[in-house]
Design goal:
302 residues; 45% helix; 11 helices; alpha/beta; eight-stranded parallel beta barrel
């Protein structure tokens, strides 16, 4: 079977200590491109026009796809696109729409975000309605830029992040209804959150397949009694669940599914957050080797 994925570097996490230094991030993008392995990369929003222009040029010259996350910007300003407070939600929508234009300056093709906190069973539908309205309005701005889509990453509902948009079956049903008014809406699938929701990884992939626009190979400790339980963007391997065999199983399973044909190959990245004490480029090398190994093992299994 044809491989439906291209390798992507999650710069926003792999080089997290540099997240507020746009000059440094620009140099990281250049070096990532020079490696010659990745066909895409993920960052937060870039504010300085000259740096955005440079990043876009590097991406275009190297035929690389750009994904950007609004999450960091919205959290920084305590904004929430699914807030039950209509005034806060309105401010959040306006800011997100402004960020679409900044993302376009970088040549972004995947504009990425998450929901806010889950308000509980009684108010959940009201919050989902508000978040849906937000996505429709953001989507109207996104339509100004051909080739750009919105992807929402479902997070865990009860284990750690406790987010509104979480379990796969519920998310897919909600998203399919919403796509009538927001046709460029897709799902960013993250293995850690699916596992923390106590879902079967293969079942989740099958349920979401026709909406998936990227895969994150993310690790987590799944035992609620263990230290480190939750989504801490930890390194792959034990004591988390994301072993090389599990990563290969995810890729093999997804590769056999009907992913969105209109997108062509989609990105797959290892998600691991570094600290200022880490050797950032050594971590990048380790994550790249893990991704290469998982992709190769999945192909061998076929």
């Amino acid at each position: 079977m044809t491989n439906q994925f291209y390798p992507s570097a999650h710069i926003a996490e792999l080089f997290f200590p540099l997240s507020n230094d746009e000059n440094a991030l620009m140099e990281v993008v250049r070096k990532i491109a020079d490696i010659g392995y990745y066909r895409g990369f993920e960052t937060g929003i870039i504010h300085r026009p000259k740096i955005a222009k440079t990043i876009r040029a590097v991406a275009e010259q190297n035929d690389m796809h750009v994904t950007q996350w609004l999450t960091f910007e919205l959290l920084k300003d305590n904004l929430n696109l699914s807030s039950l407070d209509s005034n806060l939600r309105e401010r959040s929508i306006k800011r997100a729409c402004e960020l679409v234009h900044l993302a376009a300056e970088c040549g972004t093709t995947k504009l990425s975000l998450v929901s806010g906190s889950d308000p509980g069973d009684t108010l959940r539908q009201e919050a989902k309605n508000g978040f849906g309205e937000a996505l429709i309005r953001i989507g109207e701005v996104v339509r100004q830029y051909p080739g750009m889509l919105i992807q929402v990453e479902p997070l865990d509902r009860f284990a750690h992040k406790c987010q509104l948009i979480g379990p796969t079956d519920e998310t897919v049903e909600w998203m399919r209804q919403l796509r009538v008014d927001c046709p460029h809406l897709y799902l960013a699938w993250d293995s850690a959150h699916v596992a923390l929701n106590e879902e079967n990884l293969a079942d989740s992939l099958a349920q979401a397949a026709t909406l998936i626009s990227q895969l994150h190979l993310a690790n987590a400790i799944l035992d609620p009694r263990a230290q480190g339980y939750g989504d801490y963007h930890m390194k792959f391997g034990e004591p988390g669940f994301l072993t090389p065999a599990t990563a290969a199983h995810i890729i093999k399973t997804a590769n056999a599914l009907p992913l969105p044909g209109e997108l062509g190959p989609i990105s797959i990245a290892v998600e691991m957050r570094t600290t200022e004490h880490d050797d950032l480029w050594d971590i990048e090398r380790q994550c790249r080797a893990f991704l290469q190994g998982a992709l190769a093992a999945a192909q061998l299994e076929d």
